[in-house]
Design brief:
It is built from 16 helices and ten strands. The chain is of the alpha/beta class. It has three domains: 12-49 and 146-291, Rossmann fold, CATH 3.40.50.1100; 52-139, Rossmann fold, CATH 3.40.50.1100; 330-429, Non-ribosomal Peptide Synthetase Peptidyl Carrier Protein, Chain A, CATH 1.10.1200. The chain binds pyridoxal-5'-phosphate. Pyridoxal-5'-phosphate is lined by residues 50, 73, 75, 142-143, 152, 172-179, 227-228, 271, 273-274, 293. Residues 50, 73, 75, 142-143, 152, 172-179, 227-228, 271, 273-274, 293 line the site of pyridoxal-5'-phosphate.
Length: 436
């Protein structure tokens, strides 16, 4: 495959940067003492809370439609709804059944309509395409579209211009729009930077497609990195990635969660999809790297994986969990999200050390102090602070410090209210008997 096979000219990324400039922030590259040799592209400070605003803005401004439809796991939908509100454009977001409820709430709070559909990303995107065709609305895909890819590429332009001597960029891969955009930005600037794409280890559709020389679809997978659960490489994206990417690395959920803990300790509120970049870096040992759209690190890392890139067969996962002081976390729990499952509420009597009311107060207080809001209502301020899963993670992390316990952090993503979150956390704490 050659450059001629790619349908997007590298210069489209500069055109996108010019077009979207009034609507997006040029985010900083963060340095932290705890993350030596690394720079973090702080897209959590982007207006909608993620880099997705860039691609959405480029497409919506260029298409100029009054009504748009977008398929999304959440961040793209929030971005489209943010733009829709600013530009007076009607927005419908199609989300798969398992997508984060807090992100749906954010889209609705921004005035967007949300349609939930059964199945995975492929079903969701098919439904969005059909809906757009039926209603005459413009389709703004979350990644596989020339304008969206060019918009995401502005992340790469900023990184490479702000740190021209950079050695490596790690890019988390969901639909692949960010990765393809960064590849195009590097081509446009004639940069020799090394580009590494990072996929969940059970959904390595880009690695497999690049190896096979044709698009390979993988079954729907669950992953703590909710933005990275793609099934099939994009038609527009794959040729760009094949042409320029240097390596594609798979990371497992444990590595992602540990990377996220490191980032939070360094004061950077990464969500799992962004923390995947650090998970890949932690196993690579590359110096002078930038972690795009989220964080980085080395330094003291008691939670760091020995080698996050080691493939973990699904059947082996439960025995592979971090140690807990109480009883072991039952098999499959970390992969089960979002999941206010009834059994959590049946087992409530087993609480110890901290009760639900105390925990609810702790969580509510967290929101009040950190986000200036004492509800979990999805406001744009709330999402600018990093999103619900981040806040939930920080709460659990704080509880770990307070209680000196390991908790199944993956369980607490995206619960709709402090009380429900508290129930689940308490349920996990109850894994450790009071006498332990
Ligand atoms: C925080 C974050 N990082 C990375 C990605 C992957 O982006 P893309 O779909 O362009 O590959 C996503 C996708 O939703 C995301 O939410």
């Amino acid at each position: 495959m050659t450059a001629a096979d790619t349908r997007i000219a590298p210069a489209a990324v500069q055109a996108a940067a010019d077009r979207i400039a009034p609507h997006v922030r040029h985010t900083p590259l963060l340095r932290r003492d705890a993350l030596p040799g690394l720079l973090v592209k702080a897209e959590h400070l982007q207006h909608s809370g993620s880099f997705k605003l860039r691609g959405a803005a480029n497409a919506m401004l260029a298409l100029g439609a009054d009504e748009v439809v977008a398929g999304s796991s959440g961040n793209h939908g929030i971005a489209v709804a943010t733009l829709g509100r600013a530009l007076g454009v009607g927005v419908t977001v199609v989300m798969a059944a398992g997508a984060a409820e807090a992100k749906e709430a954010a889209i609705r709070a921004l005035g967007g309509r949300v349609v939930r559909v059964p199945g995975g990303v492929t079903d969701r995107d098919r439904y969005a395409r059909d809906l757009a065709a039926r209603t005459g609305a413009a389709l703004v895909p979350s990644s596989d579209h020339e304008l969206v890819v060019a918009g995401q590429g502005t992340v790469g332009l900023e990184v490479l211009r702000d740190a021209p001597g950079l050695d490596t960029i790690f890019v988390p891969v969901g639909g692949g729009g960010l990765l393809a955009g960064v590849c195009l930005a590097a081509a446009h600037l004639r940069s020799a930077v090394r580009i590494i794409g990072v996929e969940p280890d059970r959904a390595r559709r880009y690695a497999r497609s690049v190896a096979a020389g044709r698009p390979v679809e993988v079954p729907p997978v669950d992953s703590v990195a909710d933005g990275l659960r793609g099934q099939r490489p994009g038609e527009v994206i794959l040729p760009v990635v094949r042409h320029r990417v240097d390596e594609l690395i798979g990371v497992d959920d444990r590595a992602v969660l540990r990377a996220m803990a490191l980032l939070h300790r360094a004061g950077i509120p990464a969500e799992p999809s962004g923390a995947a970049a650090l998970a890949a870096h932690s196993g690579s040992g590359s110096p002078d790297a930038a972690l795009s759209s989220s964080p980085a690190a080395t330094a003291p890392r008691p939670w760091a994986p020995s080698d996050p890139r080691t493939p973990t067969p699904a059947a082996d996962r439960p025995s592979d969990r971090p140690p807990t002081r109480g009883r072991p976390i039952p098999a499959g729990r970390a992969a089960r999200l979002p999941c206010p499952h009834p059994h959590h509420f049946r087992r409530r009597t087993a609480m110890n050390r901290i009760d639900t009311a105390e925990l609810t107060e702790l969580i509510t207080g967290y929101y009040r102090e950190t986000l200036g809001d004492d509800t979990l209502d999805a406001t744009s301020d709330f999402f600018e602070a990093g999103g619900d899963s981040l806040a939930a993670f920080q709460i659990v992390h704080r509880l770990q410090e307070l209680l000196d316990e390991e908790i199944a952090v993956a369980l607490v993503f995206t619960y709709p209210s402090p009380a429900e979150l508290a129930e689940v956390v308490v349920d996990d704490l109850s894994l450790a008997p009071a006498s332990a």
